[in-house]
Amino acid sequence: MSIVSALVLYAVIWFMTFFIAIPIRLKTQGDMGEVVEGTHAGAPAHHNLKKKAWITTAVAAVLWAAIAGIILSGWISVDDFDWTKSLPPVN
Questions:
Q1: Which of 29, 43, 72, 85 pairs with 6 at a CA distance of 20 to 30 A?
Q2: d(C-alpha 29, C-alpha 35), whole Å
Q3: DSSP class of 87
Q4: 3-class SS of residue 88
């Protein structure tokens, strides 16, 4: 795995983890009973994005290390996903 591939893998894992973490413990304006005029009741009142970003960075690092280890060890390779080998030859 090249350095660029490793960085892309980490970025994909980070964003997937972040999008999962965003709605966790989200306090909406409707939940708090303080809807600001001109906004939707589902708009966040307290989102804690900085804390979630740091937690996401730590979780993504652990997931990346596990996935990169599996890829580098050879347990899973590109050939495992090559489904065209099982097709009959074209005459």
A1: 85
A2: 5
A3: S
A4: coil
Q: What one-character-per-residue DSSP string does 19-71 give? A: HHHTTTT-EEHHHHT-PPTTS-TTSEEE--HHHHHHHHHHHHHHHHHHHHHHH
**Beta partners for residue 27, in sequence order:** 46
pLDDT surpassing 90 at residue 84 = no
53, 22 contact by CB (below 8 A): no
Structure confidence at residue 14 (pLDDT) = 97
CA distance linking residue 32 with residue 23, whole number of Å: 15
Q: How many residues does the chain have?
A: 91
Residue with tokens 């489904």: 83
